[in-house]
Amino acid sequence: MVKIKLTRMGKRGQPFYRVIVVESSKSRDGAYIESLGYYNPMKKPFEVKIDDERALYWLEHGAQPTETVRSLLSKNGIMKAYHEKRFVKG
Fewer CB atoms inside 10 A, N or C side of the chain? Predict the structure, then answer.
């Protein structure tokens, strides 16, 4: 199964995260298929940049986002676009 999850980057005390597509059996910081963007919780307000088209592509092809990533996708309107596209088609 393919998942969309966060991988931690940055030095101690200053984390930022990449939003990645990875095989579910791989470790958190292991090899990944594709990087979709990043999330920086240290900035106020927090900073999120995700490639909408690629995220929609992976969601349509069965990738399951983790809870945190689902929240970030919702805040960017990607989950809404995915559900509208999914239910309008079928």
Answer: C
